[in-house]
Amino acid sequence: MKLWDKEISTEQDILAFTTGKDPLYDLDLAPYDILGSMAHTIMLAETGLLERDEAKKLLDILNQLHGDASSGKLVLEAGVEDIHSQVEMMLTQRLGDIGKKIHTGRSRNDQVMVDVKLFLRDEIQEVAEKTRSLAEVLLKQATTHKDVLMPGYTHMQVAMPSSFGLWFGAYAEALADDLTYLQGIHAVLNQNPLGSAAGFGSSFPVDRELTTRLLAFEGMHVSSVNAQMNRGKTEWYVGTGIGAVASTLARLAMDAVLFMGQNFSFISLPPELTTGSSIMPHKKNPDVLELLRGKCNRLSTVASEVFSVTGNLISGYHRDFQLLKEILHPALEEIKSCLDMMHYVVDHMEVKQDILNDDTYLYIYSVEEVNKKVQAGVPFRDAYRDVAAEIDKGRYRPGRDHAYTHLGSIGNPGLAEIRVKLEKAFGEFHFVESKELVKGLSNYFRKS
């Protein structure tokens, strides 16, 4: 069954090619297709395009189908093109001609757009929650080890004293920034495209404001043309958000791999989180971190992959958009998996004490010597040259004293401020529980 079927035979090889992997990813969209159809049904009844009794019957069946879709019981039957066709076919099988009326006033174009937006709205919520959770475990580690010093590096060379409070806290704050970025993406995609039909509106008196409220969108795409142009742009926005979080995780993984090496030995993981060698009995390899690094580096290209499909398209619908599911759906699963795994790894990290006592870090307090001279009245540039000369001539005698008091330094890592920033970033999302929406829509006419 195809919604556009005109009883003209289409070569089966062509159908297989054009359908591609869509049936697989359509099952991800199934609950959202039904949710959108429930709102559309109510709108049709409120505008007089459906009888209320017809709408009630449709809502009852749609509510049942949503339960099946959410539990994985709804499947695409053989010969059915997509989830939109499957749902309409099942409604028609159970309700006859009433089921055929549900597509009134919409196109598959705005139908799939609302499916995608509702799906991505929930996916971003899940990614945001996991990102926040990882940031919290980083802050926990930062608090526990905030006074444990470690070397800081520039150009991969020993630079100045740092601390595990700064290091763990830095990644927590980076994830807070990523959440702020995701919040902007969430706000942009959380706009209703329903009623834009094929991208040019409808001659039916559809009520777009009503479906916007029913589906708890923050607003709508006002122009029907822009609503359709947002297909591809929405996926690109989400791809950039995935890339932002992934780049933070990849850098954290790289730091951790480096710091676990015997030449550093700043951190360690329990044996069960490492792997061995087939011939070297001493090896404890950080495979999990290396795979996190590789997966997240790959995820950083998601937005580019989306753009490679959509970058030269004019306004309006194109079948190319179908390919975006094959890019975005696996990427969303992978970023969530990476967030979960990094959370587990960070929670089990162990930190080495007294790292800076090693002679490798003999000159790490040289800046402190410069600053002491400056505080004694020596111009900074002269103090810098004096200490540099002492180092060159082997006369430098390092101290171990340091006086860092400003916010964001080893003496004051600002962990409380980072926590406030994290909570603010997460709190600015306007999340919606799809299951609650379904419950409200299914009871819509019982309340009125």
What does this structure look like?
- The chain is mainly α and 448 residues long.
- Helix content is 60%, strand content 5%.
- The chain contains 17 helices and six strands.
- The strands form three sheets. A two-stranded antiparallel ribbon has the order 1-2.
- A hairpin with a 2-residue loop joins strand 1 (149-154) and strand 2.
- Helix 3 (52-70) runs antiparallel to helix 16 and helix 11 (302-310) runs antiparallel to helix 12 (324-347).
- The two termini are 36 Å apart.
List keywords for this structure.
2 domains, 6 strands, Fumarase C, Chain A, domain 2, Fumarase C, Chain B, domain 1, 60% helix, 448 residues, mainly alpha, single chain, two-stranded parallel sheet, two-stranded antiparallel ribbon, 17 helices
* SSE string: HHHHHHEEHEHEHEHHHEHHHHH
* Rg, alpha carbons: 29 Å
Q: What is the fold-level CATH name, i.e. the topology of the largest domain?
A: Fumarase C, Chain A, domain 2
Q: Please report the first level of CATH classification, the CATH class of the largest domain.
A: Mainly Alpha
Regions with little confidence, pLDDT below 50 for 5+ residues:
none
N- and C-termini, Cα separation: 36 Å
Q: Describe the global form.
A: elongated
**What proportion of the residues form beta strands (DSSP E)?**
under 5%
CATH 2nd-level architecture of the largest domain: Up-down Bundle
Mean pLDDT: 92
Helix share bin: 55-70%
Q: Could you describe the largest sheet, including whether it forms a barrel?
A: 2 strands, antiparallel
Number of beta-strand segments: 6
Number of domains: 2
Across the major sheet, the strand order is 1-2
Structural class: mainly alpha
The CATH homologous superfamily of the largest domain corresponds to Fumarase/aspartase (Central domain)
Query: Helix count, per DSSP?
Result: 17
